[in-house]
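Appendix B, record 7
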Amino acid sequence: MTLATIARLRLVAERMVRGELPADDGRWLGGLLQDYLTRAPEENLTLDHAFGLAVEPGGEPWWSREWRALRDELVREYFAKFCGAATFAQALARLQSDIRRYERAQWPRDGKLSEMPVAYEGLPRGLLLKIFRLNENLGAGAMPSSRNQLTRILATHYVEREKVVHGISSIHGKEKGRSVG
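Structure tokens (predicted):
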């Protein structure tokens, strides 16, 4: 199961509703549906298995993976927009502090809001509200805020093989040869 499958299903659905389905998307979706219709009666195949979306034992449902990926992307966006500092370690400490401060001081009130106030748009508080709301939807418990957790969230996006971006030089969270975890 991949988030790419979900993203493509969403795109195909939108295009179908608008009457704008390109041939390659039609062939892709048609192939999945044809496979399902052919194999389901004999193999007891479910639609989620045919589409590659079935949750394996101990696995995570696709919607949780999607929410987690979006939450982590918003954490990376927050880091890039609001945590500028001279070093990665300083920026990470700022991110950690901001998350913990929001969790203590603002989330108890903001978490009860039915929608985000317009006044929050474009502000750190608005982005943190979105992040915490996604985390709540996950049922994941407390928002990740340890140095190791945040470094992993940042590294999943900023690290590309041996390329160093934002001071992270490995998936294990090293900054200029020193461990930051």
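Remarks on this record: The chain is about 60% helix and 0% strand. Residues 3-50 form one domain.
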